[in-house]
Structures
1.
Amino acid sequence: MRTTERERGQSDGARLPGGVPPPRPLTSPAVTTPVVRIGLLGCGTVGAALAALVGEQRDTIAARAGVDLRITRVAVRDLGRVRDVDLDPSVFTTDAAAVVTDPDVDVVVEVMGGVDPARDLVLAALAAGKPVVTANKELLATAGAEVFSAADAAQVDLLFEAAVAGGIPLVRPLRESLRGEPITRVMGIVNGTTNYILTRMAEAGAAYADALAEAQALGYAEADPTADVEGHDAGSKCAILASIAFGAQVTAADVHREGISRITAADIAYAARKGYVVKLLAVAELLPAADGGHDISARVHPAFVPATHPLAAVRESFNAVFVEGEAVGDLMFYGRGAGGGPTASAVLGDLIDAAVNRQHHTHGSIGELRPARLRPLDQLSSPFYICLEVADRPGVLAAVAGVFGRHGVSISSVEQTGRAERADLVFITHSAVEANVRATLAELGDLDVVRDIGSVLRVLDDL
Ligand code: NAP
Ligand code: HSE
C-alpha cells in the first residue's frame, strides 16, 4: 500500500451573473457530486486493478456520470500480503461480512471468487439493500437463480459483465440490446488461460506445463488453474450465456464439459497439417424439438476449428464469441478475456451503472428464468478426429474400419504411421451421432488389436 486515498478539495463554485452555476469542470467533481462508497471483497488480480482504475478515473467518472466513487472498505484473506494499491491500510480487513454490513458501504464489489463464502456475502449485501457487482462466474453458474431472485426481491442491481469474457462487453448487449432477439446460438472461446496455452503450444512449440505457468504469471488463470484447463471456468460462463440468451435456468452442472489437459503436441501438429487449429469452445444452442418446443444444448470441449474460421485467429488470452439470432444474423464479440486491466474495466462499467441507478432509486433485472429442457449430448452430431494405437499386422485396419461401419460412423479420412510392431491410426469421420461414436469407441476398446484409444475430438463443420 503506497499512500492514503486522497480526499478532494471541495469548492462552492461561485455563481455566474443571473445565478447560473458555472459549467462543471471535466477534471474535478462538482460540490454536489454524491459520494458512493464501495466495499471491495477481494484485492487480488482483479480487485487491485479495479482500485487503480477507480483512482485514475474518479474525476472523469464524477464529471460524466455524476457519482464520486470511493473505496472505503476492502476484505482480503491475508493482511500481510504486499499489495501495489493506492489505498489507506486502514480500509483493509479480513472480516468480509463486516464490509458487507458496514453502514459506510453503499455498493459491494465481489471479486474474491469461489462459491463460499461469496454466496452468503452477496446475499447479505442484497438483503441489506446494497447493489452488488461481481466477476464471479462460478457463483452465478451455481447459485444464479438464488442470487438473481434475491436482487429482484431487494430491488437492487446485481451486475456481472466481468463474469463472462473478461473485458468484452457481452452480457450487457445480451441483456439489453438483444433483449428482443430470438437468439439461436452463442458459441466461442471464453477462457483466456486455455486459449493462451493452446496458442503457445501451436505457435512456439511450448510444453503444456510451461504455457500454463506463463498464463498464471500473467494473471489469467483462476486461483486453482484446474478450473481453467478442465473446462470448469468455461462451463460456468457457458451456463451464464445460455441462461441470459435463452431466458432459462442453466447451471454449470447442466453443461457437458471436457478440458484441454489431455491435448497432445501430436494433436495440434496433425490439426495444423490438415488445416485446423485446436480451440476450447463453449457452445450454447437452442434446438428445435419434436414437440414444437425447444431444447437447450450447453457444452464445453476442445475442437478442431478450420483455419479459415474467425475463431481460429483468436490468439493468446483473447476471447471471441459469436451470437447468432434469427433477426440480427451473426454478431461477433472480441477482446481480452482475462487479466486484471480488462476485467477491472468491465467491473468498473457495472459499478458506475449500479452507483448511478442507486442514486435514481432504480435497478435492472435479468427477468424470470424458465426451467431449461436440456438435449442430451448423445443426440448431437459432428465429425470426429479419433486416434488409435493398434497392432501393425494384416487385417487390423479392416477390423477397425468394420467397427466404425457397424455403428454407422462413416470415415472421411484415415492416416497410418508405423512404429515397431505398432501403428498409429488417425481417423477423421463424417458427421456422426455422438451415441454412435461412443458405441464405436467402446467396441474398439474391446478389440485385442487396439492397444490404446488416444485423443477423440470434435471437428467444427458448420461454417
Ligand atoms: P485472486 O487474484 O485470487 O484474488 C482473490 C482475492 O480475494 C484476494 O485478494 C484474496 O485475498 C481475496 N479473498 C479470497 N477469499 C477470501 C475470503 N474468504 N475472505 C476475504 N478475502 C478473500 O483472484 P482474481 O483473479 O482477482 O479473480 C477474482 C474473481 O474474478 C474470481 O471470481 C474470478 O473468476 C473472476 N475473474 C477473474 C479474471 C482474471 O483474469 N483474473 C477475469 C474475469 C473474472 P488475499 O489477497 O489476501 O489472498
Ligand atoms: N481464468 C479465466 C480465464 C479468467 O482464463 O479466462 C477470466 O474469466
2.
Amino acid sequence: MMTDAAARASRTGKSLSDLRVSFEFFPPKTEAMEETLWRSVERLAPLAPDFVSVTYGAGGSTRERTHATVARILSETALKPAAHLTCVGATRAEVDAVVDSYAEAGVRHIVALRGDPVEGIGTAYRPHPGGYDRAADLVGAIRSRHPEIEVSVSAYAERHPESPDWSIEIDNLKRKVDAGASRAITQFFFDNDLYSAFLDRVAAAGISIPIVPGIVPVLNFSQTAKFAEKAGASVPDWFAARFEGLEDDAATRQLVAAAVCSEQVLDLVDRGVSDFHFYTMNRADLVYAICHLLGMRPVKPAAPDAAAA
Ligand code: FAD
C-alpha cells in the first residue's frame, strides 16, 4: 500500500525516491549546546539528507565555530556539509581566505550570503570597505577561485525586506545565478500560495535553478513570530490562531507544530515540490517526524562484507 506521501508525490508524476531533504544547523556556543547539536545530527543523519548546512553568525561572529562544526561533520560523519558564509565585516582577502580553508578541508558546498547590517536588521546595509558588496559578488568569487565548490544562495518568497519591488528582487536572484549559484533556498514562509507565486516570477525571468523551500517547524510560536517580522516573512492570522492559548502547554504545542508543519510540507508535495530544506534549530524530533511523514526511513548501515568476515 502506498503511503500518503507516496500517493501525493505520484499525483505530480514523482515518486518518493524523488524527495530530498537538507537540514540546517547553527554552530553551538556552549558545551551543552554542542551536545544537543550532535544528538540531533546523529538522529537525522540516517535519513540520508542531500546535505546539511551550518550557519554563519551575524558579522562573522561564528567564523571559527562554523568552521569547527563543518570540520567535525566532515571528519565524523558521512554527511555532505554546506558552510554558510557572509560578506559582513570582512575584506575580500579575509573572505577569500575562509573560502580557501574550506576548499582545503574538503568542503564542496557553500551557501553564499550578503548577511545583515552590522547595526542590526532594519538599519542601512553598508558593505565593508574592501569587502564584497553583495551575495552575487561573493558567489562569483567562490566560483572563480574554486569551481569545484557548489554554491547555493538565498531567495525570498515574500521579497527581501530591503527590496523596493519585485523587479529588483528577481534581478538580484538572477545576478546570483549568473555568477554561478546552482540552488536557492528560501527564507521560511507559512503560506504556500506565496511560494507558488514566487516560483512563477522566477520562471518568468528565465531562472531555472531549484528554488528549495526553507521550512521552519514552529518550536516556539512567539519567538518564531518575532523572527518572522524581522525577516520579512508574514504570519497569517489563521496560522497564528493554531498556536493560540498554548503558551503554557508544551506537549500540545509540540503536537500542533508537527501537524501544522506536516500539512505545509505535504501540500508542497501536492504542488510538485521534491526538495525541502529544514531549519532545524538544532532540534531533531519535529523534523524527524515530518521526514517520516514524507516517507523517509533511516538508512541502515551497510552490512559487513561477507567475504571480509
Ligand atoms: P543579497 O542577495 O545580496 O541581497 C540583499 C538585498 O539587496 C536584496 O534586497 C536585494 O534585492 C538587494 N540588492 C542586491 N543587489 C542590489 C543592487 N545592486 N542594488 C540595489 N539593491 C540590491 N545570515 C547570516 O548572517 N548568516 C547565515 O548563515 C544566514 N543564512 C541564511 C540562509 C538562508 C537560506 C537565507 C534565506 C538567509 C540567511 N541569512 C543568513 C540571512 C541573510 O544574510 C539576510 O537576509 C541578508 O539581509 C541578505 O542576504 P542575501 O544573501 O539574501 O543578500
